[in-house]
């Protein structure tokens, strides 16, 4: 849907260029395309003044103009200079572009060391990353830099394997130069996960799912981080895992957190990526994904909606011949991949449809039921999501009661919608009224009668 422009098409800016369509926008700023084939940033007087008082922008160097009763400020960099929202930009195509952003991050942090920058505006020509003061959870600068390099994929710049996978031209030496220019601390050793200021790796967590978090820590993370200890007792690598449960219970969210924490290359098998009506084609594509995962090992292979490929061969459908071949390919490949250090995590809403041979131990050792979140889990996620944004006078318990029994995605949506409502009302923090209004505006889409628990079978 087109964004609503403040200025009419063809409006003449102080530098003589004329406006075209709106490219990116929020309540206090807009980035518009101009007739010079470049871009211009238009901001309200309030936001521009806030940047000026913080020392991030010198408004004497900006262009001011009036549109009706409103005083606005504009900056129009040269056509070959980047002007974009940080979390909605393409990946840089060369080292110079990457270094320019890194320098802007360093120069901005020299003036403002604390304001979150994940939703900021990058102006290459000014060597600035200007915060928009959005009410969203803060993201560390290493993730801001990594995400910009990866074209919007949220990844730490210290997750070197994932960065190299997403930005193929960025070798180790170039990445080290970019980190150095940004003012961030160089990554210590060859770690693929972010470290804190003490040099210790932060613990793996899944907000709102303590039992699932404990399972991954015990059966995956600990085996990887203490590999020598386990190898001495004959355990080489974590076993394959099936997560099953109703839609919206948080399976995908948990797997995404695990992949992000490990920082390994990740590969996916799902209906859109490998499904084919042609004989042998699906099996061939399955084999290709397994081969790629083993080539990039250690890696993660995620099998989504596994019932689409691994349903019971005895069901006797018209496509049973294809099904036998596909299941057979998985049966051969799964042990091979585990032996070659590929962590396999499969997800399904219909465990009863999965072929028994696939569920047998030796292929998938762990079959984990993930139910809808309990009230305590909902409250835990709410606290986690709200702890890094400004809040006032919240009764989280009341909100948790209202969201119990609903998907974790609803909890995340409600907190973000509350932030949007608060910002739209001119407030600088999320209050109880914003949260209640957000819950009211997002009723449950369907009743869910599944048991709200997590168990292991």
Written overview of the protein:
The protein is α/β, with parallel strands linked by helices. It is 40% helix and 16% strand. The chain has 17 helices and 16 strands. It has helices at residues 45-54, 95-111, 141-149, 160-166, 172-182, 210-225, 227-231, 251-262, 271-274, 281-295, 307-310, 320-339, 356-359, 375-386, 396-403, 408-424, 432-441; strands at 19-25, 29-34, 39-44, 63-67, 70-75, 83-85, 121-123, 128-130, 240-244, 266-269, 299-303, 342-348, 364-370, 391-392, 430-431, 454-456. Strand 1 (19-25) and strand 2 form a beta hairpin.
Mean pLDDT: 83
Largest sheet: 6 strands, mixed
Number of helices: 17
CATH superfamily of the largest domain: P-loop containing nucleotide triphosphate hydrolases
Shape: globular
Please state how the strands of the largest beta sheet are arranged side by side: 10-11-12-9-13-16
CATH class division of the largest domain: Alpha Beta
**Count the strands?**
16
Spans of at least 5 consecutive residues with low confidence:
188-199, 447-453
What is the structural class?
alpha/beta
Helix-residue proportion: 25-40%
Radius of gyration: 25 Å
Distance N to C terminus: 46 Å
Considering the chains and any ligands shown, give keywords for the structure.
5-stranded antiparallel β-sheet; 16 strands; 16% strand; 6-stranded mixed β-sheet; 457 residues; globular; Rossmann fold; alpha/beta; 4 domains
Ordered list of secondary-structure elements with their pairings:
Elements lengths: L18 E7 L3 E6 L4 E6 H10 L8 E5 L2 E6 L7 E3 L9 H17 L9 E3 L4 E3 L10 H9 L10 H7 L5 H11 L27 H16 L1 H5 L8 E5 L6 H12 L3 E4 L1 H4 L6 H15 L3 E5 L3 H4 L9 H20 L2 E7 L7 H4 L4 E7 L4 H12 L4 E2 L3 H8 L4 H17 L5 E2 H10 L12 E3 L1
Parallel strand pairs: 9-12, 9-13, 10-11, 11-12, 14-15
Antiparallel strand pairs: 1-2, 2-3, 3-5, 4-5, 6-7, 7-8, 13-16
């Amino acid at each position: 849907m087109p964004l609503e422009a403040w200025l009419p098409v063809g409006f003449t800016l102080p530098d003589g260029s004329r406006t075209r369509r709106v490219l990116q926008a929020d309540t206090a700023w807009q980035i518009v395309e101009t007739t010079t084939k470049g871009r211009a940033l238009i901001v309200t007087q309030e936001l521009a003044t806030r940047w000026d008082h913080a020392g991030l922008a010198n408004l004497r160097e900006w262009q001011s103009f009036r549109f009706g009763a409103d005083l606005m400020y504009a900056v129009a960099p040269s056509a070959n200079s980047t002007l974009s929202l940080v979390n909605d930009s393409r990946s840089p195509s060369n080292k110079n572009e990457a270094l320019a952003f890194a320098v802007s991050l360093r120069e901005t942090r020299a003036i403002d060391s604390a304001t979150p920058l994940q939703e900021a505006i990058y102006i290459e020509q000014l060597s600035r990353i200007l915060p928009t003061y959005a009410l969203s959870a803060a993201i560390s600068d290493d993730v801001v830099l990594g995400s910009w390099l990866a074209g919007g994929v949220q990844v730490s710049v210290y997750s070197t394997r994932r960065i190299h996978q997403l930005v193929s031209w960025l070798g180790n030496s170039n990445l080290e130069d970019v980190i150095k220019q940004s003012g961030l601390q160089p990554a210590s050793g060859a770690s693929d996960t972010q470290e804190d200021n003490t040099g210790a790796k932060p613990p793996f967590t899944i907000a709102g799912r303590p039992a699932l978090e404990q399972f991954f820590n015990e059966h995956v993370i600990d085996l990887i981080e203490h590999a020598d200890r386990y190898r001495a007792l004959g355990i080489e690598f974590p076993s394959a895992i099936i997560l099953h449960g109703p839609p919206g219970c948080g399976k995908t969210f948990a797997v995404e957190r695990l992949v992000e924490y490990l920082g390994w290359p990740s590969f996916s098998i799902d209906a859109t990526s490998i499904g084919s009506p042609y004989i042998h084609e699906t099996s061939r594509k399955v084999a290709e994904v397994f081969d790629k995962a083993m080539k990039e090992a250690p890696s993660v292979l995620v099998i989504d909606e596994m019932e689409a490929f691994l349903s019971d061969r005895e069901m006797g459908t018209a496509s049973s011949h294809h099904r036998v071949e596909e299941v057979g390919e998985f049966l051969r490949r799964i042990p091979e991949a585990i032996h070659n250090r590929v962590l396999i995590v499969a997800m399904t809403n219909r465990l009863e449809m999965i072929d028994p041979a696939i569920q047998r131990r030796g292929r998938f050792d762990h079959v984990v039921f993930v139910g809808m979140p309990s009230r305590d889990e909902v409250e835990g996620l709410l606290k986690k999501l709200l702890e890094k944004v400004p809040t006032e006078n919240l009764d989280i318990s009341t909100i948790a009661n209202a969201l119990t029994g609903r998907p974790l995605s609803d909890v995340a949506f409600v907190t973000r919608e509350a932030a949007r409502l608060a910002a739209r009302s001119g407030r600088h923090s999320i209050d109880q009224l914003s949260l209640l209004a957000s819950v009211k505006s997002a009723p449950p889409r369907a009743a869910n009668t599944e048991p709200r628990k997590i168990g292991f079978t």
